[in-house]
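Case study 2.
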Amino acid sequence: MFHSTECTQERLFFSLKWAAEGKLDLPIIGKQKVIDVANSFGIKTKRRQFNNIAKDVADVLLDDLSNTDPNREYKTLEALAPPERKKIWKDLGLILLVHIMKYLKPSTNQV
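Prediction:
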């Protein structure tokens, strides 16, 4: 069962992806935010169409949201969580399944 916030985030990420693919007739606002998040994720942005960048961002977000492997790195956490917090989590050996939602929300406020 999904928490309501997870469902909302998932719908938002699919909406971003479908808008970028032209399957959903909605404008993508916050274009600079999408580009900034893409750069944080290591997604190439130079000489690429914006919609392709937005689709790649949505794919990363959806992949992180569905990740259940505690041994696989979350790109969202690596890109957006403060380094000092990541160090504490690593030192404590925490599995980060719950924490991802905290960092997904700020990254998508204007998407």
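The longest helix spans residues 4-21.
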